[in-house]
Amino acid sequence: MQGEAYGQVAEALRSGDLDAAGLDRAHRLLLEFVETITRHAYRVTDEQVQGLRDAGWTDEQIAEATYDAALFNLFVRLADTFDIVPPAVYEPGGVPPAAVKPSAQNLR
Question: Is 5 a member of any domain?
Fold first, then answer.
């Protein structure tokens, strides 16, 4: 997702705007699945997983997405716990909207 060819898509994803990213159905479902894991893992349903299969994802790919989401969330939770913030040089435009810490109200 680097380079000018994907600049608009990458910016939409960094902003958390899946509509503006212009994703195909399969990728949209996969990112919604990852969002469910991130926000409310206990809400993942058999129907959601079957929807991924129906969209063409294999069980191995679904498992890998699950592992990646869980591992990334571990890193984020550790960084939040220890208040680790990347240097501004990595985010010269500020923290992307999709990475802003949600309030406790939004997590319910």
Answer: no
- Inside any domain, residue 77: yes
Q: Cα separation of 97 and 108, whole Å?
A: 19
What are the pLDDT tens digits along the chain (108 aa)? 455 777 888 888 888 899 999 999 999 999 999 999 999 999 999 999 999 999 999 999 999 999 999 999 999 899 989 988 877 777 777 777 777 766 544 554
CA distance 76 to 86: 12
**Cβ atoms 15, 96 nearer than 8 A:** yes
Eight-state DSSP code of residue 86:
-
- Asked if residue 69 is part of any domain, the answer here is yes
Question: Which two three-digit tokens encode residue 24?
Answer: 């195909």
> Are the C-beta atoms of 39 and 69 separated by less than 8 Å?
no
How many independent structural domains does the chain possess?
1
Identify whether 11 is part of a domain: no
Listed residue (28, 39, 10) closest to 102, CA to CA: 39
Domain that holds residue 82: 24-107
